[in-house]
Amino acid sequence: MRFIKKNYGWMIVAILATLPMLVVFNLLNIDFTNGLSITFEDADGQSTIDMLYHVTGEFAIRWMTAVLTCTPFFILFGVTNLFVRQAMGVATAVWSFLHFIFFIQAEGFSETFTQVNYIAGFVATLILIPLFLTSNRKSMKRLKSNWKKLQSLAYAAIILSLLHVAILEKTWLIYTVVVGLGFMIRIPIIKKQIMAYRASRRAKSV
Ligand code: HEM
């Protein structure tokens, strides 16, 4: 019970990030008759690859946007949880890697370098590798102040991902608005005023 009380935040993130994997499994045709073969087809033999791109891409960008709202959320409400943030980072990376794995399987790795939007997505995915590998307490302790510097690469990843989605003319505006507002709240002078306002309200209430 004590464990759940202490860890429920990241556990909820893990459940929310894992549940949609059931949809992904449903879109795959897994056949064990002749070794393991995975194809992107439904029961009627129709291709499910577009749906797989859609589901994995959407979850990747949603989690990435969510991670980047953690700091603005802290500035606005004074609430933060490092483990929740790290779990969100892992969810972002896992969904992005799945998105890319399906792409490689369907189109081939070399196809990545045929369009600017794919290259932008590819660089974003590369950035996520060190972020994914260091999203844990051990790496935080080992890297000390460099950990924060490394994590700030997430800004480049979101800009490249938004570029990828915008060029594809998919849903990008809502994510850009949320991320953009988050960046504005982080501007030192705005951040300082919000923090001062919160501190004064807290002082009045005690
Ligand atoms: C090597 C990296 C990547 C490749 C090759 C790639 C490729 C693709 C392809 C082929 C599509 C479908 C395009 C279409 O339906 O016309 C797509 C859609 C999408 N991708 Fe990526 N992508 C990559 C990385 C990323 C990353 C890092 C993110 C976000 C974190 C992302 C988010 C999305 C989103 C949101 C969509 C639109 C889904 C929809 O609404 O249908 N992609 N991507």
Tell me the radius of gyration: 20 Å
What global shape is seen? globular
Class by alpha and beta content = mainly alpha
Elements, N to C (H/E): HHEEHHHHHHHHH
Total beta strand runs: 2
Main sheet summary: 2 strands, antiparallel
State the separation between the terminal residues, measured CA to CA. Answer: 32 Å
Count of the separate structural domains: 1
Cofactors, ions, other ligands:
protoporphyrin IX containing FE
Strand content: under 5%
Low-confidence stretches: none
The mean pLDDT is 93
Number of helices in the DSSP assignment: 11
Describe this structure in words.
- The structure is a single chain.
- This protein is mostly helical.
- It is built from 11 helices and 2 strands, in the order H-H-E-E-H-H-H-H-H-H-H-H-H.
- It has helices at residues 2-18, 21-26, 49-68, 70-77, 82-107, 116-133, 137-143, 145-151, 153-167, 173-186, 188-205, and strands at residues 29-31, 37-39.
- Strands 1-2 form a two-stranded antiparallel ribbon.
- A hairpin with a 5-residue loop joins strand 1 and strand 2.
- The longest helix has 26 residues, at 82-107.
- The chain starts with a helix and ends with a helix.
- The mean pLDDT is 93.
- The structure holds protoporphyrin IX containing FE.
- Protoporphyrin IX containing FE is lined by residues 50, 53-54, 57-58, 60-61, 64, 96, 99-100, 103, 112, 118, 121-122, 124-125, 161, 164-165, 168, 170-171.
